[in-house]
Amino acid sequence: MLLLPVWAFRRIFESEVILEWAADMFRPPIFRSILPADPVACARSRFVSRIVDLYIGPHTPVLYNRFPEAHVREAVQNMHKYLDLLEGLGPDPLFTTDRRPVAGDLAVGAFLIHAEMLGQRIGLTPFEGRPKLRAFYDRLLKDPDFAKVKQENIDAFAQARAAAKAAKQAKL
Amino acid sequence: MKLYNSDGSPYCARVRYFIYASTLPIDIVPQDFNDPAFRKINPLKKVPTLELDNGEYASPAAAAATATTRHGN
Q: CA-CA 20 to 30 A from B16: which of A17, A104, B32, B58?
């Protein structure tokens, strides 16, 4: 049985829950709005977040670890299916707002960073035949905070690769 | 407040983005989620995890009042 002790109430888990807590607690500019003001755009942002969390996220371990070929193929097919769904949803150039990125945009954007960086090995091609998704990602990259986050991800993986290589050489 | 973070996690990336775009003071600390000691912080061994400072159980309304006072609008 997994127990969450009393002190757990001093800690908040899960990215969207953390963001929602901060947005409930603090007004802009102390904490940036995570959802659009328009209720329809707001629902759209939440929907997009759920697509990523519930339907794409469970398949992403194949990006980071080795799995049997059939498992990888099925995972990639599923991710392509939901990328197609996102492409169909996307009013060019942003999915969930016409002003600045909100939570749904970041859910998709963060996944695309990893898909672009690690997808080639397993045949995951997030932008092939998906011009709206490409335009969305390109626009996100013009946001300096998103560009910073992307670079941090790239650096983290470069460091992890270097550490793994060094560990392998040390064994020889 | 402290955010246990991994720069290589897409879930942490979402949270860091909004922290960078805001002025809320949150310490971002690197955390290896495979570290067994992290289980004491989050039994699910997942990042991101946000740890609140003592006394931060204020209601959202109280926090909003604080925010208004701090920024004067």
A: B58
